[in-house]
């Protein structure tokens, strides 16, 4: 098994596309006071900035970093290039997220699976990833199981390769802290600590009955196996859908509540149509709302039985919006349905089914306030492509540069300057 993990992915894409940020600390995530760090470059990590840290704390640790909001079109493009490359070498590829995946090397058409062979293959693959992504690096681990490969890929970051020879798995794991095992979070680690168990070697000495008593039957059985480097999980290339969702991002902040309700209603209709097309229904309706400061909120409500009715989904989505404060503006709205089933509860009492909502054409009003988010791509009539350095008090500051240009000049404009506009690439066929 091979596990590939792109290094500091979001931040690395930003550094690749913004020459002036190369070699400097970059933090990607929510840029507002309630924001959360998604990814920090290795230059920022030296100051203690980590994923899931509040942006407020990250700014206090590394005030000179560039704090940028996400550009998901750029991340998706890089991810597609990597996943396509992996699928070209093996039909069994299991993406875990945009930036990491497992690959079954038994299906990679290698002459053998000797250590020297898989090492050379993995080294070549890393080079091809850098070429396909125009400069990004990946850390790779290879082992006899998914668990060992994942552990190995974390051992030599960034831009590293670790191959664990068969038969040496337990020697690798024994000195490590128990948190290296999947499923050992803070609560489980504390239970084990109170029992005097800190390392994998110490966990290995605990019999199954005692481990079940400590952490429960299901969890204990899994940890018992993993502590002995036993993991027979296969690479699963296609995962069953766990949810169906639709979302939209808007170039201008939405402030009209009626407009937002209309957009949620339309999205609910699209979700319902996708459910019916797939022969599915779902019990849990959720909404996703990203505010003007890139804080992302979510709310959900669970029905007593599955539904694929657009009216029901829309009604719940609109009710979930009611309790959220959107007065500052909203830049993303989404509706999703999870808890999927392949059946719909019939109305056993003969009530009239909820009427399907009408889905009128919706226009985003031009007077909605435009958000110039730090890091977003823009284009100017005279100076061409660039990105937002910062904005406020009616002014937006832009650095004009691209991935293939040298670090460019910085200029400031009025926020409503007609010569300046957001830039987005043409959608890939699968995004249309």
Content of β-strand:
15-25%
Mean pLDDT: 89
Across the major sheet, the strand order is 5-6-1-7-8
Name of the CATH first level of the largest domain = Alpha Beta
Count of alpha and pi helical runs: 13
Q: What's the number of domains?
A: 4
What spatial form do the alpha-carbon principal axes imply? globular
CATH topology of the largest domain: Alpha-Beta Plaits
Q: State the major sheet.
A: 5 strands, mixed
Instruction: Give start-end ranges of low-pLDDT stretches.
Output: 345-357
Cα distance spanning the termini: 34 Å
CATH superfamily label of the largest domain = Reverse transcriptase/Diguanylate cyclase domain
What Rg do the Cα atoms give?
A: 25 Å
What's the helix-strand series? Answer: EHEEHHEHEEHEHEHHHHHEHEEHEEEEEE
Structure class: alpha+beta
Specify the helix fraction band.
25-40%
Site (Substrate discrimination): 10
Domain UmuC: 1-185
Keywords: Cytoplasm, DNA damage, DNA repair, DNA replication, DNA-binding, DNA-directed DNA polymerase, Magnesium, Metal-binding, Mutator protein, Nucleotidyltransferase, Transferase
Region (Disordered): 401-432
Topology, please?
Layout: E1 2-6, H1 9-17, E2 26-29, E3 37-40, H2 42-45, H3 55-61, E4 66-68, H4 72-89, E5 93-97, E6 100-103, H5 115-132, E7 138-142, H6 146-153, E8 161-163, H7 169-173, H8 186-194, H9 200-204, H10 208-215, H11 217-226, E9 243-254, H12 257-277, E10 281-291, E11 296-307, H13 310-322, E12 330-341, E13 377-380, E14 384-392, E15 395-399, E16 410-414, E17 420-422
Parallel strand pairs: 2-4, 7-8
Antiparallel strand pairs: 1-6, 1-7, 2-3, 5-6, 9-12, 10-11, 10-12, 13-14, 13-17, 14-15, 15-16
Helix pairs in contact: 4-5, 10-11, 12-13
């Amino acid at each position: 098994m091979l596990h590939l993990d792109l290094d500091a992915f979001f931040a690395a894409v930003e550094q690749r596309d913004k020459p002036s940020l190369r070699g400097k600390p970059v933090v990607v995530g929510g840029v507002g006071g309630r924001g959360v760090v998604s990814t920090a470059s290795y230059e920022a990590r030296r100051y203690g900035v980590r994923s899931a840290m509040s942006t407020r704390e990250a700014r206090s640790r590394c005030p000179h970093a560039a704090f940028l909001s996400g550009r998901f079109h750029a991340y998706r493009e890089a991810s597609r290039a990597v996943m396509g490359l992996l699928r070209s070498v093996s039909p069994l590829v299991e993406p875990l997220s945009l930036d990491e995946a497992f690959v079954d090397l038994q299906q990679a058409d290698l002459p053998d699976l000797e250590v020297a062979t898989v090492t050379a293959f993995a080294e070549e693959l890393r080079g091809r990833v850098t070429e396909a992504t125009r400069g990004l690096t990946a850390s790779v681990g290879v082992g006899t199981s998914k668990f060992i490969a994942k552990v190995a890929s974390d051992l030599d970051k960034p831009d590293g390769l670790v191959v664990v020879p068969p038969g040496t798995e337990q020697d690798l794991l024994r000195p490590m802290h128990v948190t290296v095992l999947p499923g050992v979070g803070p609560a489980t680690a504390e239970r084990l600590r109170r029992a005097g168990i800190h390392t994998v070697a110490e966990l290995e000495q605990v019999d199954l009955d005692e481990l079940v008593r400590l952490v429960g039957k299901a969890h204990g059985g899994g940890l018992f196996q993993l502590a002995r480097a036993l993991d027979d999980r296969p690479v699963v290339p296609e995962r069953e859908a766990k949810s169906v969702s639709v979302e939209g991002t808007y170039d201008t902040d939405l402030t009209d509540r009626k407009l937002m309700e209309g957009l949620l209603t339309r999205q609910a209709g699209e979700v319902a149509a996708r459910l019916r097309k797939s022969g599915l229904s779902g019990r849990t309706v959720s909404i996703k709302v990203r505010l003007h400061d890139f804080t992302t909120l979510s709310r959900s409500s669970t029905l007593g039985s599955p539904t694929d009715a657009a009216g029901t989904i829309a009604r719940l989505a609109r009710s979930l919006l009611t309790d959220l404060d959107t007065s500052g503006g909203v830049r993303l709205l989404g509706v999703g349905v999870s808890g999927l089933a392949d059946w719909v509860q019939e109305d056993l009492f003969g009530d009239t089914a909820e009427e399907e909502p009408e889905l009128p054409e919706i226009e985003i009003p031009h007077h909605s306030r435009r958000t110039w988010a730090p890091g977003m791509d823009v284009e100017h009539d005279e100076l061409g492509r660039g990105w937002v350095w910062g904005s406020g008090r009616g002014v937006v500051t832009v650095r004009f540069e691209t991935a293939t240009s040298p670090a460019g000049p910085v200029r400031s404009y009025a926020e409503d300057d007609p010569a300046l506009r957001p830039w987005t690439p043409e959608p890939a066929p699968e995004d249309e």
